[in-house]
Write a structure and sequence with these properties.
Elements lengths: L6 E4 L7 H12 L4 E3 L6 E5 L3 H11 L8 E3 L15 H10 L4 E6 L6 H4 L4 E5 L4 H10 L3 E2 L14 H8 L5 E4 L10 E4 L6 E4 L5 H4 L7 E2 L27 E5 L3 H17 L4 E5 L12 E3 L6 H18 L3 E5 L7 H11 L2 E2 L1
Parallel strand pairs: 1-8, 2-8, 4-6, 5-9, 10-11, 12-15, 12-16, 13-14, 13-15
Antiparallel strand pairs: 2-3, 3-7, 4-7, 5-6, 9-10
The structure holds adenosine monophosphate (AMP) and magnesium ion (MG).
Magnesium ion binds next to loops.
Length: 349
């Protein structure tokens, strides 16, 4: 791949510099790539209507060709051009959760290249709840295809420094708008069936969706250990979000988790390995050991979602051989956190 001179610009989301937004929009309109913050993670954007521009996303990320992209819009009116029809269920969701971390699947119109949807007849669309992202989309007047702005397989970026680590020299512009908020990606929802199905848990929880629908289920491939089932969200089939080190996630009651981690710690240290422990505010003092990273507060799992990917990248920086990670309750956003932790890990205990 040809090396590109990547422009890195800071934008204050409280006081947006419109010249910088215009510069980003110009790049996008000409078929270039711009990374920008959203409320979930940083996105790597391209013109969703320009097949050649979209192809560059796959190249820069090393993304498998069968993993479709989410199209980002800034106004509900944009959707008509992109889909065949807007079902009643979608209107209810858009009204309640947009802008926000909910991606809805629609039957795509012919304006969306198959490159975006990885050959699928459905297109995933969302409206991000971030001023910088919305301004860029509004200003460029085009829908923006944007997966997470990381090298495929690595933890998603929640700070501009993560994007710089992964994509500097590969894309035209990186906008540094500070840390993202939610910290895990959007929920991907299929509303084509009578009971809506969550294909990927994310920032909008099942509990949130149950305020709109009587029933909401998870894609069967997300549940249990049946490896035969193929996830309907293609991205879910890959090992993902992964730090360089092997990672083991411990599930169950918190005191059992602590005891199991202490035993494993001794065993790995005895083998001469450098171990990292991902702990929480409530548990950190149980480990009398140096490489403990506190990912957040168990009582407030939103803090864990916000810090998860940064914590995984920190373990890479420390250069540990193995990460022993505490699991958390799968209630609310905990479902998305545990989904990412399991995908990042090689083993579960
Ligand atoms: P990323 O933006 O990197 O978080 O990845 C987007 C996610 O949305 C991937 O896991 C995709 O599998 C999922 N996705 C995008 N489009 C579709 C679609 N048409 N059907 C099902 N899942 C989709
Ligand atoms: Mg991603």
């Amino acid at each position: 791949m040809q090396k590109v001179n990547t422009k890195i610009v800071k934008i204050d989301k409280q006081n947006i510099d419109e010249d910088k937004i215009r510069c980003a929009s110009e790049i996008l309109k000409k078929g270039g790539l711009v990374a920008f913050p959203t409320e979930t993670v940083y996105g790597l954007g391209a013109n969703a209507l320009d097949e050649a521009a979209v192809e560059k996303i796959f190249e820069a990320k090393g993304r498998p060709q069968d993993n479709p992209l989410i199209v980002h819009i800034s106004h509900i009116n944009q959707i008509k051009h992109l889909v065949q029809s807007v079902p009643e269920k979608a209107y209810k969701l858009m009204e309640k959760f947009w802008p926000g971390p909910l991606t809805i699947l629609f039957n795509k119109s012919e304006n969306i290249p198959y490159k975006v949807t990885a050959g699928l007849s459905t297109v995933a669309i969302r409206m991000p709840n971030h001023k910088i992202a919305l301004e860029i989309i509004r200003n460029s007047k085009i829908p923006i295809a944007a997966p997470s702005a990381n090298i495929s397989g690595k933890p998603s970026p929640t700070y501009a420094k993560h994007v710089i680590e992964d994509l500097n020299g590969k894309i035209d512009m990186i906008i540094d708008g500070g840390s993202t908020g939610v910290g895990v990606e959007s929920t991907v929802l299929d509303i084509s069936t009578e009971i809506p199905v969550i294909l990927r848990p994310g920032g909008v929880t099942r509990e949130d969706l149950l305020t709109v629908f009587e029933q909401v289920t998870y894609d069967a491939a997300l549940e249990g250990n049946n490896k035969e089932l193929i996830p309907k969200s293609p991205g879910q089939k890959y090992r993902h979000y992964s730090p360089k080190a092997e990672m083991i996630v411990f599930e169950g009651e918190v005191n059992d988790i602590i005891e199991k981690i202490k035993i494993m710690l001794e065993q790995y240290l005895y083998k001469g390995m450098k171990v990292g422990i991902m702990a929480t505010k409530q548990t950190k003092n149980h480990y009398n050991y140096e490489n403990v990273i506190v990912v957040g507060d168990r009582e407030n799992p939103e803090t864990i979602a916000a810090n998860l990917f940064e914590a995984l990248r920190q373990f890479d920086k420390i250069g540990v051989d193995i990460i022993l990670a505490e699991g958390i309750s799968e209630k609310g956003i905990g479902k998305a956190v545990m989904n990412r932790m399991k995908k990042a890990s090689t083993k579960r205990r």
